[in-house]
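Translate structure to sequence.
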């Protein structure tokens, strides 16, 4: 039996000998907490042995220039709650432990728990309550803010990273948030560029926050993408964003700009009563999934005849934007499916809305970026597979946009 196994066996025997419930072994006050404390202290003793060059209680150390000099107490916070450990000291004050460095009060992994909670939309107060309930640990709001602030360097590196040369399709979207600025609460938009890269994987190219949009604003974003390595975008799906058409004409004149069908459907269903939404969604699908532009127009007429008395704004909206809806009918079905498939955009929107819902008012723009970035890191872990039928789609892209992308 190894020394660690013996220690574990003794802890269990002691616990049961006291007539305690075996389930308590897994509580934060039980075996896991005791074992964490014991392992940390064992590692500290090992580090001190290495530092001094002799084992504890060995005679060889008594004649050396440097010796052990007792312990200092430190309270650590971990996933098992708070516990006190004895940090060994040496007479020359040269010992610097690695497992618990100077001024460290939290074991590795605890900060990740806080970041994960923040990424899921929990407020500072929510995180404090959760840590108290699960680990019995009181954590200050300042500490939580400091931990989440630590990701800002990551955000900057991520926002400035190099990108692919060519993206077959990029969806541009906006999310509204409330931000405190100059002692006022104002509405700001967080603009997102969600791309499908040449391998068929989803990738968020960046995010930008602004109170206003226009051709100059969008030209600045597109220029930033070019400076980060993007030389071509084949299809850009937009949501009627002001000034976007003019910006693309200047920065990426060959890009096919298409009104995002996801947003068209979402906007059409916004004011439809719940009991009619499924039926209306099916009728809208008959439009954008038509084989030809002519068939799509016929289906729009049928929708208008059926729904105009109850919801006249739906058909009117599609007619108003028809010139920006129909470009996709120039593409073969495999490319069209990517344009009107809702999964890519909707899953991102749902995650980000959930992450920001509890933050009624953000204290500043940095807080918005922190919450958004951490949420994106969460959802991107699931982007391990290319989008459905990507092989056929990329072949069609290479034919339709001859010479602009390679397979």
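Result:
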């Amino acid at each position: 039996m190894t020394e660690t196994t013996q220690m574990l066996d003794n802890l269990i025997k002691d616990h049961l000998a006291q007539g305690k419930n075996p389930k308590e072994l897994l509580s934060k006050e039980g075996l896991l907490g005791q074992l964490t404390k014991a392992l940390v202290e064992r590692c500290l003793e090992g580090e001190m042995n290495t530092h001094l060059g002799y084992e504890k209680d060995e005679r060889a150390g008594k004649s050396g220039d440097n010796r052990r000099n007792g312990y200092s107490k430190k309270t650590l916070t971990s996933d098992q709650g708070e516990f006190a450990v004895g940090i060994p000291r040496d007479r020359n004050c040269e010992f610097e432990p690695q497992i618990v460095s100077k001024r460290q009060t939290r074991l590795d992994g605890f900060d990740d728990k806080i970041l994960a909670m923040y990424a899921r939309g929990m407020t500072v107060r929510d995180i404090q309550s959760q840590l108290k309930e699960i680990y019995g640990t009181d954590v200050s709001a300042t500490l939580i803010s400091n931990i989440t602030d630590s990701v800002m360097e990551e955000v900057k590196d991520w926002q400035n990273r190099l990108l692919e040369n060519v993206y077959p399709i990029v969806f541009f979207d906006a999310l509204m948030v409330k931000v405190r600025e100059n002692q006022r609460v104002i509405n700001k938009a967080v603009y997102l560029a969600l791309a499908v890269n040449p391998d068929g994987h989803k990738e968020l190219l960046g995010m930008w926050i602004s109170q206003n949009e226009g051709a100059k604003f969008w030209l600045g974003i597109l220029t930033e993408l070019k400076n980060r390595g993007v030389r071509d975008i084949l299809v850009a799906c937009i949501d009627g964003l002001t000034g976007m058409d003019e910006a693309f004409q200047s920065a990426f004149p060959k890009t096919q700009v298409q009104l995002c069908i996801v947003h068209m459907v979402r906007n059409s269903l916004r004011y439809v009563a719940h009991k009619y939404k499924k039926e209306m969604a099916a009728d809208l699908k008959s439009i954008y999934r038509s084989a030809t532009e002519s068939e799509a127009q016929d289906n729009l007429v049928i929708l208008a005849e059926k729904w105009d008395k109850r919801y006249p704004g739906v058909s009117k909206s599609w007619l108003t934007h028809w010139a920006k809806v129909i470009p996709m009918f120039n593409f073969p079905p495999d490319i069209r499916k990517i344009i009107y498939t809702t999964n890519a955009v909707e899953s991102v929107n749902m995650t980000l809305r959930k992450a920001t819902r509890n933050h009624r008012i953000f204290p500043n723009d940095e807080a918005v970026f922190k919450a958004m970035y951490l949420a994106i890191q969460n959802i991107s872990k699931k982007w391990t597979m290319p989008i459905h039928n990507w092989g056929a789609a990329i072949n069609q892209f290479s034919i339709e946009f001859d010479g602009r992308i390679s397979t």
